[in-house]
Amino acid sequence: MLILKVNKRSEIPLFKQVFERIKELIEQGVLKPGDKLPSSRDMAVHLGVHRSTVYKAYEELWAFGYIDSRPGSYSIVREREELATLEKRAQEGIIPWNEICTPLVDDMLKFIDEATKEKTTSPDTINLAMLDLDPRIFPVDDFRKCLNGVLVDDGARLLTYGDAQGYRPLREAIAKRLQIHSIEVAADEIMITNGAQHGLETILKLLIEPGNKVLIESPTYAIVIPLMQFYRSQLLPIPMREEGLDLAYLRKTLEKEKASFLYTMPNFHNPTGISTNQAHREELLALCEEHKLPIVEDAFEEEMKYFGKVPLPLKSMDKKQIVIYLGTFSKVLFPGIRVGWIAAEKECIKRLVAIRKVSDLSSNMPLQAALAEFCEKGHYELHVKRMHRIFRKRMQTALKAMKDYITVENVSWTEPTGGYLIWLHLKNCPLKEERVHDLLLKNGVLVVPGRFYFPTRPKDPYYRLSIASLDEDEIKTGVQRIAKTMEKIYK
Amino acid sequence: MLILKVNKRSEIPLFKQVFERIKELIEQGVLKPGDKLPSSRDMAVHLGVHRSTVYKAYEELWAFGYIDSRPGSYSIVREREELATLEKRAQEGIIPWNEICTPLVDDMLKFIDEATKEKTTSPDTINLAMLDLDPRIFPVDDFRKCLNGVLVDDGARLLTYGDAQGYRPLREAIAKRLQIHSIEVAADEIMITNGAQHGLETILKLLIEPGNKVLIESPTYAIVIPLMQFYRSQLLPIPMREEGLDLAYLRKTLEKEKASFLYTMPNFHNPTGISTNQAHREELLALCEEHKLPIVEDAFEEEMKYFGKVPLPLKSMDKKQIVIYLGTFSKVLFPGIRVGWIAAEKECIKRLVAIRKVSDLSSNMPLQAALAEFCEKGHYELHVKRMHRIFRKRMQTALKAMKDYITVENVSWTEPTGGYLIWLHLKNCPLKEERVHDLLLKNGVLVVPGRFYFPTRPKDPYYRLSIASLDEDEIKTGVQRIAKTMEKIYK
């Protein structure tokens, strides 16, 4: 008979004490595989405890694999599989993940590693690379109160699975807000997504079979390139001109190629900052209508028309329903809530919702409800106005500084009519793009090298400058440092 | 000269009045395409307003596409593209979405339409179909306070883009919690997902090339079937036996087939409720190690071991790092926050994170931070204990009622050791599955027909019963109604 002791005055529950003592005996090898434990009745008598205490301890031993026990039978010590603790487990497992994963993943990994490679910056570096909004201007408190309020009022419901199409009051608020931009869509024609990029991915799932062709602008939003490649689509780049994507080039391409859709950013294009004019938009729409080509209109900065002069979104004129419109709160409110949306014809939305149901079921409910409340209470509109005031001044400061300080003839840049982005072009540059980038950094300013935005590397160096996270002083200093670097390069 | 009037005492801003009046004149055809508007200077004099007011009105007219204007030139009325209002736009667009979308989407749509077809239920119907948790037991208030607290303390940061791998303190809290289940992983070996299903999808992105084979249990979680088909994988079903997936069958399959991974639910399997025993797990793990086959262990109800007796998770014994472990808060806390996780070898996690970056960037931050706080403050542990008390009684009630009321010899069911699911089997049934389902509903009880869980329809009718959203009285009534229906069918 085993001799065990329990301490009835200990804070540790009795069954735990019994469990621990027997576990120790097994681990020390005192009890060996095949040994029988006393019946729970005998053990209870021996320890002077209730039988249920022993029963519970035996259950724990079984759960952790120390004993075998079948109803009515004795409990037998078993050869227990060792736990895979950090020490016990192989440094490297037996699955060669790099070999068994789809080759597309390693391409993606390479792209991301390169694009997000940390550069050594000093605390003094001006970061003109980040398109993340300046957190200093987030309306945190109003949003927090809305979030808290909806959970007080309707918490239990907001914590259940939501509508895969998105929380209806939020879809209604978005439909209402889109009217400001002359877009008239019903809440049924909107699906909420986890950000605009997730929206684009869902559209790829809908429309892309491996090998299908997609028309993109060149340059375009950097992550679009590996994303579309991951969906095994073939990219057909349409060059960007000063006035937007080259319509003549697009027309010719459409005459010889069958594409699944065109991906375009008519406002404050990423990375160039270019917005197309009204005539360009009408011609683009007519051309795509003629070819029955769906347009994915990425309107990630639709709200940031702070200089006023901005033509109509493609979606606002989309009488033949070929436009799939992507929106987001990330570039005007905050990105950490991951809420964007797709507006498209009902038959298209219906299929996107089916994809959501099979993919990740739905977006989270509490943040959607808080956003709906935030819009309904008027906070959103006020915030947009505030953003306009702030960024109108910041962009004016940036453009004025560029004009004042950058005097090298070969260096030119776009003059955006809103948004956050300026695109710098270095003609006849004696240095390579990477080298200029390093020099800029050495002079205390971080920008994004242009090559990440092109499907194939361009001849000249380009750099994307973003004013999204900087105040006017920082912008001015950043531009001065760029100017100084340009002078050195071209001297 | 046009004659316009403005009302200087109106609440409507002057520029808006000018804008509206000119817009009307254009829409009424008084002003025609090609007509010149007066210069802003002349118009200002005519109206007796400041020139900037007119300038702003002209900007609005330009933005909405009513006039062309170039710097220094007069403004000219243009042929404006009509807005695509709900009335003006085609009832049906020109894109045949059903034809251009990938054929996989329409298969998916069909599956979802059928699986989620609303049955007419009366208010009195007992819903044994829902695996959604009972919202009456959600710890709404504690969670709300955590959420509000983290936003008070650290709001601005929590509203920026988060770490694509997931909010680190939450990964740490999960790593700590997994120790309860004998699983030792580091925070680096965890990636947060938008629920367990989203985790599975991300794994498919990592491992599946079109045509690859995946081993699944048959029956299995219903949505897994269309999801895996959407990723163009070929399903290799392994039959479920009373003790879990058929190991001999798996062994034979592995001898002739090369599969990308095995998807399995060792605990409280969906839909059968079966848990495998310790020996089964050890054998399964050894077999897959031998074939270097990754195992995706879906542990969606790991926390719900309320009867105590549950063997070790595969991951806890995974010394050779072949197990990708899927966890979630949806089936123990609440699903509306959409938070789950993947625990796997670092090299595997690294690639999953790259996929996230290209796919949807990251999960939302505020809900992750609130969960981390909820765990750290001990609310989570207390809640799980409460859930155990509640569902131990509910499952006991269900199983007792089944035994007491269902006396038809041909009807059998599983006896789960935790979780929410019971699997009903009707041998030699004179009626088809659909017919029995209708009869059950007529008798006031809704269950899920078994066919949705099989890649190919089984001979006998099966039904999944879930106690997740019902209290003891409701469960008892539901079982009584099932018993009554069974008697009628087999009489």
Would you write up a description of this structure?
The structure is a homodimer of 491-residue chains. Chain A is an alpha/beta fold and 491 residues long. Helix content of chain A is 42%, strand content 13%. The first copy, chain A, is built from 16 helices and 16 strands. Chain A has helices at residues 14-27, 40-47, 51-63, 97-100, 103-115, 140-158, 168-178, 196-207, 224-230, 247-256, 278-290, 346-359, 365-376, 379-405, 433-442, 472-490; strands spanning 67-69, 75-77, 126-127, 190-193, 213-218, 234-241, 244-245, 261-264, 295-298, 323-328, 340-343, 411-413, 421-426, 445-446, 448-449, 462-466. Chain A is elongated and about 95 Å long. At the A-B interface, helix 3, helix 4, helix 5, helix 6 and helix 8 of A face helix 3, helix 4, helix 5, helix 6 and helix 8 of B.
List keywords for this structure.
491 residues; alpha/beta; four-stranded antiparallel beta sheet; 42% helix; 16 strands; homodimer; 16 helices
